[in-house]
Amino acid sequence: MNRLPISPSHALRMLAGIAVAVTAALLLAAPPAAAHPMPHSVLLLDVHRSSVDAELDLPVSDFSRASGIDLDDHTTTEQLTARNAVIRRYLAAHVHPTTTHGTAWAVTFGAMALGRTEQTSTGPYRELTVQATLTPPAGGDPRRFVLDYDTIVHQVVTHTVLVSVRQDWATGRVADEGRDSATQVGVIRTDTRTMTIAPLTVDLVDGSIWSGTYAMFRLGAHHILEGTDHLLFLLILLLPAPLSAAGNRWRGPTGPRTALGRIGRTTLAFTIGHSVALAVSAFGRLDIPAQPVEAFIAFSILVGAFHAIRPLFPEREAVVAGVFGLGHGLAFSLTLSEMNLSTSQLALSLAGFNLGIECVQLVLVLLALPSLICLTRLRRRSEVRTACAGLTALAALGWLLDRLGLPSPVARAADSAGTHTSQLLLVLVTTALITTLWLLATRRRAQDPSTRTGTRPVLQEQEG
What we know:
Layout: H1 8-29, E1 41-47, E2 52-59, H2 60-67, H3 77-82, H4 84-92, E3 95-98, E4 106-119, E5 123-135, E6 144-149, E7 160-168, E8 183-189, E9 200-203, H5 209-226, H6 228-238, E10 243-246, E11 249-253, H7 256-283, H8 290-309, H9 317-337, H10 343-375, H11 381-403, H12 409-416, H13 421-447
Parallel strand pairs: 1-7
Antiparallel strand pairs: 1-2, 2-5, 3-6, 4-5, 6-9, 7-8, 10-11
């Protein structure tokens, strides 16, 4: 009788051994499992002439673990306020800026807040934000210092701190666009080989007054391009400028010289108004609440829209533009007031910022000018003007309600127009070219003797 070369039990043992060996090989060859990415801290620096403002953005879970201070996703604002003193003491023990020669800076901690944020691949999480001011000793350079910082890192060895400059007027960084636009200057982390945390040396390049001034020019230009409400106010005031008024109705077009004079005076008055308010509020360091200023701007646009439909202040557009321009200037000043600039920096910033506003404003008015003149020569000019004024009034009403605390989808839609700057400029340029060509062709036909045969004088008609 022939025997099997391998018994069933032996075969089973061999299969089990192969399975174990294959499993072990797969486990050994597999890459180590990656832990869930944890959020890092962010330290944002605003560099001024004699001090540095810092914003500490700290993940609540890691901060609580490192400090022993009870904070979590359910901590309320009142509970945070009760823990402010102990949080400040903890931070004071772990934030130590010094000069490059080792002389300590003064550190004061200010406002604190809890919010929710998100970083790439981490998902949303709770964040503690703390404001601080770092002041060098007499003769110290705020552009060059050593930052001995181990908040969270001294206990959570896997934690990382990203240090970035958000604002630095001397090098032309003046935009307040948040952490995503900041320039990273270093990283603080634990050296896992020596288990030490090396201080970070911050050494910023020297800037110049021209860098800051030019940056403010760009900011002013950018501000007016995105300021849909400011542009809309000016354009709606200019809309009926080429028309004459009789009683409570707009009539036919005035002469070109009269129309250009009104447009020029209105634009100049608006410029003077917001320039004066901008200078007074900036140099006076006035602390103006934003909400009433923004609501006033919305109201001014609403008044301008009604004036474009029915003349409320004919021949006085320049005066109204100047008065309402004061409110628009206060809104512009809110941008400068947040930068904490020195007096000399503020003067140069004011000049650059205002010049940027005026240059872009002048370009936009010149682009709109052919369309304003062309509109007065259309057969349906009254209907077109009323439709433009109606849409403007709708946007202004939406802004007014939104700025008084009643959220409005109309306001959000109107604000979104400011995010499409390139498309807006393209439309304005295209329209200006088309209307200019149309005006030139109309003028050529009017000067051609062959087209005057049998023509009759055109009477000035009432528009309604």
